[in-house]
Amino acid sequence: MVYNPNKEALNIQSIMLASGGESGFRLNVDGRKGDYFDNVGILAEDSMFVFVEVNVNPNDSNQPLLVEDSVVFMTNGGKQTVLLEAYGQNMHLYKGGLHITKDTTFTADLPHLVYDSIMVAEGATLHLTEGATLYMHDKANIVVSGRLISEGSLENPVVIRGDRLDFVLDDILPYDRTPGQWGGLFFKPGSFGNRMEHTIVRNGTSGITIEASEPVDTKLEISNSQLTNMKGNVLTSINSKLMVTNTEISNAGGSVVALAGGDYQFTHCSLVNYMRLVQRSTECLVMANAYMQNSENKVVPLKARFDNCLVDGSFGAGKNPLSGEIALSSVDEADFDYYFNHCVLTTVGSDNGCFESTLFTTEDNYPSYRKTGGEANKYQFDFRPDTVISLGVGKADPAVSANYPVDRLGINRLESSDGPTIGAYEFVKE
C-alpha cells in the first residue's frame, strides 16, 4: 500500500519496473495492470494498493532460481525504489491429493512439490531414489498404507521438508529452519517393510507417526538419517517394531522419541532436544506400556534396547532418578523392559539391570556440540561433539561399533585414536 500523509493531493509522476518488464514481474496499480504508469494521483491522506506478481520462466535446472527487480517511484523529481526478490524452480507439482495405487518412483530429476498430501495405498510402494527432494506445502502429509522405500546416499540424501524458500528473519532465520511448515509422515496399521536410509526429514508438525499394529514384523527401518525440528514429536510409535541405526533424532516441541508398547532397537543414535523456536512440553525420550485409543486405555508390552546411544537436551538431568530427559510410565498388567548399554543419558541414575556402562550427565560432565542454534548461529544446529572431552567420546561399546564401523556422515569409528564415540557422530577434530 502506498500512503499519502500530506494535507494535499499527491501526483506521482511515474511508477515502473526498473527492468521495463523483462524480469517476469508485473504490477497492478490501483486495479490497472502493466509495467509503467504515469501521473498517478493520490488524494490527501488517502492511499492506493500496488500489487506485484511474478512468473519465473522455466529452465533445465533443478536448483532454485532467484529473480530480482525493483519498483521505481518518481515524485517531484525524487526517486524511491522498492527491491523485489522471488525464487522459482522447475518441479513436479502434485495438487488435489496424490493417490498412489501402484508402485511409483520419485527421482531426483526435478524437485517434487506436494501441495496437498500423498496417500500410498495398500499393496503399493512409493520409492524415493537418492537425491530426491519433496517440498511439502502447509499441512501436507504422506500417509502410507502400503510401503515407503527411501534410498538416499551420503552424498545425495533424500530430503523431505517444507516448501518455503524465504526467511522469517532476513538472512538469519529461513523457513527451512522453522518447525511446523507441513504435516508429517503417517504409517498406517497394515503398513510393514518400510525403509528410510540417508533420509532427512525436517521442519514438520508431527514428524513420523507409526500407528498401532502387532510388533512381530518390522514396520520401519531407519538408518544413517536425520529427523529434526518438529513442532510436536519427531518420532512417535505405538505398539510397533522399529530398528533405528546411525540416526540423529532431534529438536521437538514435544518428545524427540515417544514409544508406547512395541519392540524397538536403537543403535548409535543421537536423541537430542535443544529446541529454541517452540516451547518444549515434555522429555526427550518418553516410554510407556499403555496408551489411549478412542477413550480406552490400551495396555501393551514394551521392549526397548539402546546401544551406544545419546539422550540429551536442555531440560538437564533433574534431581530424581530417571527424570531430566527421560520419562517412563508403566502399569503392572504388561511387561515394561528397557535396556541401555554404553549410553550417555541426561538423567539421574546408576548402573543396574537396565543400565550397563552408562554415563549419566552432571553439571561438570556433559556432551558439548558444535552448534546449538540461537541467533548467533542463525538457528543452525550441529550435534557433532566439538571437543575430545565431550561426554561419550571414546566410550562406545566397541563390540557394537564393530557392526557399524562408519557413522552417519561416513567417518570410520574404528580408526579413531580416541575410540568409537557414543551417538550417531564420531568425534573429529575441527
Would you give an account of this structure?
The protein is mainly beta and 430 residues long. The protein folds into 2 domains: 2-88, Immunoglobulin-like (Sandwich); 92-360. 1% of the residues lie in helices and 46% in strands. The strands form 8 sheets. It has a 17-stranded parallel β-sheet that branches. Strands 10-13-16-19-24-27-29-31-36-39-41 form an 11-stranded parallel β-sheet, with no helix packed on it. A hairpin with an 8-residue loop joins strand 42 and strand 43. The longest helix is centred in the C-terminal third of the chain and has 4 residues, at 398-401.
Summarize the structure.
The chain folds into two domains: 2-88, Sandwich (Immunoglobulin-like), CATH 2.60.40; 92-360. The mean pLDDT is 94. It has a 17-stranded parallel beta sheet that branches. The chain has an eleven-stranded parallel beta sheet with strand order 10-13-16-19-24-27-29-31-36-39-41, with no helix packed on it.
Strand content: over 45%
Overall 3D form: elongated
Secondary-structure class = mainly beta
Number of helices: 1
Integer tally of domains: 2
In terms of per-residue confidence, which ranges show pLDDT below 50 for 5 or more consecutive residues?
none
Largest sheet: 17 strands, parallel
**Average pLDDT figure:** 94
How far apart, in Å, are the first and last alpha carbons?
50 Å
Work out the number of β strands. 43
Percent helix: under 10%
Rg, nearest Å: 26 Å
What order do the helices and strands come in, and which of them pair?
Layout lengths: L1 E2 L6 E8 L7 E5 L2 E3 L1 E7 L4 E2 L1 E5 L10 E11 L2 E11 L3 E3 L3 E3 L3 E3 L5 E3 L3 E3 L4 E4 L4 E4 L5 E3 L2 E5 L6 E5 L4 E3 L3 E2 L9 E4 L6 E4 L1 E4 L4 E4 L9 E4 L2 E5 L4 E11 L2 E5 L4 E11 L2 E4 L11 E4 L1 E4 L2 E4 L2 E6 L2 E4 L12 E4 L6 E6 L2 E2 L9 E2 L2 E2 L8 E4 L8 E5 L12 H4 L29
Parallel strand pairs: 10-13, 11-14, 12-15, 13-16, 14-17, 15-18, 16-19, 17-22, 18-23, 19-24, 22-25, 23-26, 24-27, 25-28, 26-28, 27-29, 28-30, 29-31, 30-32, 30-35, 31-36, 32-37, 35-38, 36-39, 38-40, 39-41
Antiparallel strand pairs: 1-6, 2-5, 2-8, 3-4, 3-7, 8-9, 20-21, 33-34, 42-43
